[in-house]
Structures are given as structure tokens and as C-alpha cells.
Amino acid sequence: MTQEQLIYTFDQFKHASEYVSFKELASGHINDTFLIETKAEPFFIVQRINHSVFKDVPGLLSNKVSISRHIQNKLSYLSDEELHRQVLRFVQAKNGDYYHKDKHGDYWNVMIYIKDSVTHDVVSNAKIAYEGGKLSGNFLNLTSDFDTSNLTEVIPKFHDMPYRFWQFEQALKVASEDRKSKARVYLLKVAELKEEMHIIQKLKESGQLKLRVTHNDTKISNVLFDKHDNGLCVIDTDTVMPGVVHYDFGDAIRTICNTAAEDETNLDLVHFNIEFYRAYKKGFLEKVASTLSPLEINTLPIGAKTMIFIMALRFLTDYLNNDIYYKTKYPEHNLDRAKNQFKLIDSMVHQMDVIKTKNVYSMD
Ligand SMILES: Nc1ncnc2c1ncn2[C@@H]1O[C@H](COP(=O)(O)OP(=O)(O)O)[C@@H](O)[C@H]1O
Ligand SMILES: [Mg+2]
């Protein structure tokens, strides 16, 4: 990406400011993200959306813009300064859309840069988990009255358990004997957990769990913090879709409460961090409990287990498929990732009784 190309792209938007310089922000993993500094603030974020991951990018951007607008309206009692630190703002393109499609077929969008913000790749203390929980809970709270039929399903069947099992069973049919035998213990675990891991799906299908706006990528790096580790704003709303509360709670817990990296091979290092779980859940419920049913609240722990399981299943499926989806660095990489997630489930289950009985509002 040359400076000229970036300026050209930036100038397709109604930014009303004078370009000074740009730098690429390396923290995201999906999109290409650039910070544009201008003569006077605000600065801007220019983002190229990865359209090999997302097929309907205009639909995706429409989700992002309409959710942001909805939240802005809900928070209109705030001062402009506060509001602009708490919700993403998108800049309209000169053609009236909120995106620009370039001659290579790539889609771009522009946001206001939230200044003096940082992201965390890992959670280093309970305060960060608590603040992350508050922001994610608040996002669900503020969007709980949004009509989900207005959202594009950007990745169909993303967390659909029968679909993930179907993919797994297809993979089993074509898997080599070698890979099947190396995965044997985990194939048994999948069978053992199958029924329990459909509980959330069944409650969703029967209408007992409310279909609501969910973010679907609630890892901690998708939250902006100020320099005192206070949460500011939920970002990266690319995967906003209709879903159940467990998707967001569970995926956050899966990523935040693992004491090791997702592909750590020394399973002795993989533990479920109960302190971060409580801190996250406390923040989350402080913000969203008033819009949740007792069933939604009571099933949060199994929701978290289900979200860890679905990743284990997807890694295992890809291993059986000879690694066609996730990038791998060595032949057993996907199997190691699956083992890691299963270990996390074991560690969580061991502590589950504690999780269930502790007062959700207490930090101890
Ligand atoms: N509005 C914003 N203000 C400040 N920083 C931002 C903003 N949007 C994105 N960023 C920064 O850019 C990074 C990548 O953005 P993100 O939307 O999460 O893309 P990806 O999908 O690639 O993860 C973030 O981790 C954050 O550091
Ligand atoms: Mg991100």
C-alpha cells in the first residue's frame, strides 16, 4: 500500500481534513488497518475489509453502521466528547455509501480514531477482565432492543452446533487412518460431550433463549482501553449478527480465561483462570443482567463451555481435513490447538461447582 493509494482512498470519504501522514496498525488479524494523522484532530482509521473471510462486505458494513448509530442514539445524553470515546463513528463516502470499493474489488471504510486508546492482546489482571466484561455487557444491553431481522448474517451458521458436527462427520469420512488414530482420545471426547453441547442450540431453536444482537468476536483485543485500563469502546464489529448471549460471553471467557496461548502444547500450562472468569462475569452482568432472563443468566457457564467446545471441534475437524482452513505451522498444529481447548474445558469443569455456587456479583 503506497501513500498515494491510501490518500486516494481516504479522499473518497467526506473527512473534511488535511492529510499529514499514515501508519499501519499491526494489532488486528483480519483486516488491514491504517491510522491517518491529519492537520487537526480528529485522526482517522482507514480499514480494508478482508473479503476472503466476508462475502457480503456491503451487508457487513451496513450492520456496523446501523449498530453504531443505534448505540449513539441510546447514549445521546452524553457529552460529544464522552460519546465519541464510547462508540465507533463511521465516515460517509462521497458517493453516499459508508464504503468505497476500489478497482481491485477491495472494500474500504473510514472511522474516527479514538485517541489515547490502547488494546490488550492478553489479559494481565482482573481489572482488565472486569472492564472488558462491562463493555461487552453494555454492548449487548444497548443493542437489546435492536431488531435483529435488519442484520445481515455475515458468516452463516457461524456458531451452529449441528452444522459444526456435520462438518466434523464429513471430515471423519475422509480423514487418514494416521490422523484419526492420533486424534482418537479427542474423538471419544467429542462423542461424550455431544448431547450436552447441543443444549444451548436447542434452547435457541425452541425460542427459550432470545435472539439478540451479538458481537461474535469478543476477545479482549477488540476492546479499547484508556491508559488507566478503564474500558472505552467495543470495536471490530465485523461479525455482528443475530445470536444468543452465550456466544459473546462464551467466546470472551474462552479467550480471556486461558492461562496459556491457544496453541500452547505444554498442557500443564493450560488452566481456566477462575479469577478472570469472575471478574469478567461481574462486569458483564452489571451492565446486561437487567435485560437477561433467569434462563440466560443460569446457562452462562454452560454457554462458556459450549463456546470452548465448538472451537475444539473446529480445530479437530480441520486436523482431520488435513488443515484446509486454519493456517498451520507444523503437521499437528490443529490437533494441538484442539487438545489445548479440551484441556481448558477439563480445567473449567473441575472448577464448575465453584463457578455455579458463587454469588455472581462477588469478586472473591
Ligand atoms: N476507531 C478506532 N480508534 C482507535 N483505534 C482503532 C479503532 N479501530 C481500530 N483500531 C485499532 O486497529 C486495530 C485493528 O482493528 P480491528 O477493527 O480490530 O481489525 P481486525 O478485524 O483486523 O482485528 C485494533 O486492535 C485497534 O488497535
Ligand atoms: Mg480486531
Total of DSSP H or I helical runs spanning 4+ residues: 13
Q: Helix share of residues?
A: 40-55%
Mean pLDDT: 94
Strand order within the widest beta sheet: 1-2-3-5-4
Q: What's the architecture of the largest domain, going by CATH?
A: Alpha-Beta Complex
N-to-C series of helices and strands = HEEEHHEEHHHHHEEEEHHHHH
Beta-strand residue percentage: 5-15%
How many structural domains does the protein architecture include?
Answer: 2
Keywords summarizing the entry:
364 residues, alpha+beta, Phosphorylase Kinase, domain 1, Aminoglycoside 3'-phosphotransferase, Chain: A, domain 2, 2 domains, five-stranded antiparallel β-sheet, 45% helix, globular, disordered C terminus, binds adenosine-5'-diphosphate, binds magnesium ion
What does this structure look like?
By secondary structure, this protein is of the alpha+beta class. The protein folds into two domains: 3-112, Phosphorylase Kinase, domain 1; 126-357, Aminoglycoside phosphotransferase (APH), C-terminal lobe (Aminoglycoside 3'-phosphotransferase, Chain: A, domain 2, Alpha-Beta Complex). Helices cover 45% and strands 11% of the residues. The protein has 13 helices and nine strands. The chain has helices at residues 3-10, 57-74, 80-86, 126-142, 161-174, 177-182, 184-193, 199-205, 245-256, 274-288, 294-298, 300-320, 333-357; strands at residues 19-25, 32-38, 44-49, 100-101, 107-112, 212-214, 223-225, 231-234, 241-243. A five-stranded antiparallel beta sheet has the order 1-2-3-5-4, sandwiched between helices. Strands 6-9 form a two-stranded antiparallel ribbon. A hairpin with a 6-residue loop joins strand 1 (19-25) and strand 2. The radius of gyration is 21 Å and the shape is globular. Residues 359-364 have low confidence and may be disordered. Adenosine-5'-diphosphate (ADP) binds next to loops.
